[in-house]
Design goal:
mainly alpha, flat
Amino acid sequence: MAELGTWGWWLTVALLAVGGLAVALSLAVRPPRTLVAAADRLAIGLTLAFLPAPAGRFGYLALPVLLVVWARSVTAPGFSRIVAGSGGQYVRSGAEAKSANA
């Protein structure tokens, strides 16, 4: 796209705008309900934003991969997490809470 000159710049801006609108529309139509879903949606948006980058900048795609891996690692069984409606307090996951109340 860089070889297209001014048209390439406009094409890149248009692709970024379309990608941003697509992610915004997906958030409005179906908001993510979990940390993993939110991280996946953010990773998709960042991937769309980084795709028009020059080939030498392929390292930018490490951020979406990191988001996907991180979200799944912190929601693994046994990890405490903040639950909506808990007032920002860390609470036990479902299995931990059942064993603690037994």
